[in-house]
Amino acid sequence: MEIQTVGVAGCGLMGSGIAEVAAKAGCAVVVREVDEAALQAGRGRLEKSLARAVSRGKLDASERDEALARTTFTTELGDFAECDLVVEAIVEVLEAKKALFSQLDSICPAGAVLASNTSSLPITDLAAATSRPDRFVGLHFFNPVPVMKLVEVVRTIATSDETFDAAFAFSKSVGKTPIAARDNSGFVVNLLLVPYMLDAIRQLERGVASVEDIDKAMTLGCGYPMGPFTLCDFVGIDTLHKIAEIMFDEYREERYAPPPLLRRLVAMGRFGRKKGAGFYDWTKEGPVPLKL
Ligand code: CAA
Ligand code: NAD
Questions:
Q1: Atom 30 of ligand 2, residue of closest alpha carbon
Q2: Minimum-distance ligand 2 atom for the alpha carbon of 116
Q3: Residue of the CA atom closest to atom 21 of ligand 1
Q4: Structural domain 5-182, CATH architecture
Q5: Can you give the pTM of this predicted structure?
Q6: How remote is the C-alpha of 174 from its chain's centroid?
């Protein structure tokens, strides 16, 4: 099964990155957002990332232009009708994803593979919303997609070998290193990473140190590329909150429970770097830690 035309549903932080790596790898890409404003914001994100690659000498201007020429931006779901693969990267909400996959199931060719980039929802629950669970797989990319090498390829008990192999090969073809993961909520990385981020928030609530000092501790003490609060802002406070709720619901273990401070940030719309504020103010040179 060869994947030449790729649909990407949602062009937020992750969708724009997935579209970018697929277009750079030579696929025809169809990107769909809910409305014109979200579509233009997503297109802007993709173009900014390509411009960054050009300025860093990783991509020629002509390769950037070719990648953009291969990418179609739309608000019409019907434009996925010719896709060999559709990767879903919309909000981390079960009902929203199920509704989308049920529509994709009737729009996409019978042989097309449907994939979700979900961080925490069981792939089986999404596959069950379609008539093609054999051609359904998890393709979990990491943020920022153009930089992070890993893709977790997740199969359910219904995923066919052909589908899994095609998804694995596709991940390689866009320059990633795939691993096979079982369909448990959080797969491999988030099982370990999410409790770490939530625990950092709990330690902050206990007053062990400031946001800035906890971040310094983990970067300078452990060599992590960014501290836990920078990472929370980077992932998205709203997304992390949804992930924690889903994983807590699944496992009923305290380490996945969303801490009260995370809920407060969501209530205040402090969704992290993408909205300019989370634990930090991202509109200033810095970033600058905010009052909590
Ligand atoms: N898009 C494209 N390229 C980017 C980028 C972006 N958003 N951010 C950084 N880069 C590139 C830069 O161009 C640069 O490339 P070169 O070295 O080739 O020039 C390289 O990445 C390093 O960037 P910087 O020097 O600007 O910054 P840095 O050294 O601090 O690295 C980082 C930035 C790669 C993001 C690094 O801080 C990092 O690895 N952070 C941890 C990221 C992480 O843990 N991601 C996983 C999140 S969890 C998840 O994704 C799963 C989930 O389900 C929630
Ligand atoms: P985001 O908030 O940046 O973007 C989500 C986008 O989906 C928005 O632009 C929104 O307009 C759009 N959207 C909502 N409903 C839609 C629909 N029905 N059709 C098309 N678009 C729709 O979120 P994100 O960080 O890109 O996360 C997307 C998915 O990827 C989530 O499932 C998340 O858990 C997962 N994920 C996130 C990260 C991360 O670090 N942020 C990493 C890996 C996986």
A1: 89
A2: 32
A3: 147
A4: 3-Layer(aba) Sandwich (3.40)
A5: 0.97
A6: 16
